[in-house]
Design goal:
This protein is of the alpha/beta class and 404 residues long. 30% of the residues lie in helices and 22% in strands. The two termini are 33 Å apart. Bound molecules: S-adenosylmethionine (SAM).
């Protein structure tokens, strides 16, 4: 699928090539590279993300359309430094002004591995001093949180983030262009227990083989993330425009001095024009918890896809047979706590029964943390993705457990 939402010629000759890096959760790199290819951007898969070089407009496009990336960084500088004197000399040469607006301040995230300069606090302090001096402002530090896992508060996201990585004495300095992490589409204010990140829900859908012309059911839908992300895909709603008016959420790069609002508006306008009026097939969710279903409806309303999904309160045992075949895509509970195992075995076995008795032709994609629970469903399954969900290693498997 190539997105007919932009004119690649509009990107040519706007400025010199810059290097970008789309940060991903582990295991999602290939999916992000495929999403970039759909935007005519040739990315290089690296550990933890995908890099590419191009004009600034490619970063606007990627920010608007990527469903599975966590944030997009812009490479600012790369150099070798084995002493603080060397580091300070390099820092004095960096022009920070293209990445910092007039308000909001600056914050830093520093990691160092296998390097002579290993003390992250001391490195952070040098950056804070140099940037603060160059820009005439106070620069805060943030105690070593990882940029791909951190979900900062709205107030923190106001400040421009610079990500600094030392590895084998090489220092890579990047500016965050996203602000709030990209999984924050803006629609999910109501959460049920153990909600799935929007980026992971989109990743499961994209990796599964489901296409929007096929019905989708999540019978353990919690706050509805999988059907809602399915609706966004089916209607070609860019994730940052997941709201009833399709106004995009804000990004850090909009505060940069060279931000080009008319170019941004053109890309947003083209994306808005490509949105479909409705989803071609049913997108269903159910859960036994009435509170979760209420949250799911609220999220669907805020995402502007209320008319495309249907949620109801219903236990797994009450799912009915359907004449049309489709996809059951879900993340069943993993049961990290002791004592939950027996209930979970029963739940996974009921899922297996459901496939054999009522959804025999259906395909499935499940997010699973535990092979022995998966065996209760039946199989065979093929693994299509390995990643982490809320710090737990998980895999995504696909199969047709009801077929004989
Ligand atoms: C891991 S959560 C799903 C989270 C969801 N993907 C989200 O984004 O919010 C699992 C869900 O399964 C539901 N559940 C557990 N046992 C169930 C059963 N027997 N029938 C229906 N729902 C059940 C729970 O209420 C919970 O909402």
């Amino acid at each position: 699928m190539t997105l007919a939402t932009h004119d690649p010629r509009a990107l040519e000759g706007r400025d010199t090539a810059t290097t970008f890096f789309a940060v991903t959760a582990p295991g999602l790199e290939e999916l992000v590279a495929a999403e970039l290819r759909d935007l005519d951007i040739a990315g290089v898969v690296e550990r933890g993300g995908v890099s590419w070089s191009g004009p600034l407009g490619t970063m606007y496009l990627a920010s608007l359309h990527l469903r599975t990336a966590s944030r997009i960084l812009v490479r600012v500088s790369e150099f070798k430094a084995r002493s603080f004197i060397e580091l300070e000399r390099h820092l004095r040469r960096i022009d920070w002004t293209p990445f910092v607006g007039s308000s909001g301040g600056v914050r830093l995230r520093v990691t160092s591995r296998k390097s002579r300069l290993y003390h992250q606090g001391a490195i952070e302090e040098r950056f804070a001093r140099e940037i603060g001096g160059a820009l005439g402002m106070e620069v805060g530090t943030s105690g070593g949180r990882r940029d791909d896992e951190d979900d900062s508060s709205d107030a923190e996201n106001e400040a421009q983030l610079f990500v600094v990585r030392f590895h084998r004495d090489r220092c890579l300095v990047s500016a965050d262009s996203s602000g709030a992490l990209l999984h924050r589409r803006g629609y999910r204010r109501a959460v049920a227990r153990a909600p799935l990140r929007e980026t992971l829900a989109a990743a499961v859908l994209l990796a599964s083989g489901w296409t929007p012309d096929q019905p989708l059911l999540d019978p353990l839908c919690g706050s509805g993330t999988i059907p809602i992300e399915g609706a966004l895909l089916a209607r070609r709603i860019p994730p940052p425009m997941a709201n009833p008016t399709h106004a995009p959420r804000g990004f850090a790069f909009q505060h940069w001095p060279d931000f080009d609002p008319s170019f941004w508006d053109r890309i947003v306008g083209a994306a808005r024009a490509a949105i479909r009026h409705d989803a071609p097939a049913a997108l269903l969710g159910s859960d036994r918890d009435a509170g979760a279903i209420e949250a799911a409806w609220g999220n669907a309303r805020r995402a502007g896809v209320e008319a495309d999904v249907h949620f109801d309160t219903r236990p797994l045992s009450a799912i009915e047979a359907t004449p049309t075949k489709g996809w059951l895509i879900s993340n069943p509970p993993y049961g990290v706590r002791v004592g939950e195992r027996r209930d979970l075995r029963n739940l996974y076995a009921s899922l297996g029964n459901l496939f054999r008795s009522r959804l025999s032709d259906w395909n499935t994609a499940l997010i699973a943390a535990d092979d022995s629970l998966l065996r209760e469903v039946g199989g065979p399954f093929a693994e299509v993705l390995r990643t982490r969900n809320g710090g737990i290693p998980v895999k995504v498997v696909v199969g047709r457990p009801g077929s004989r």
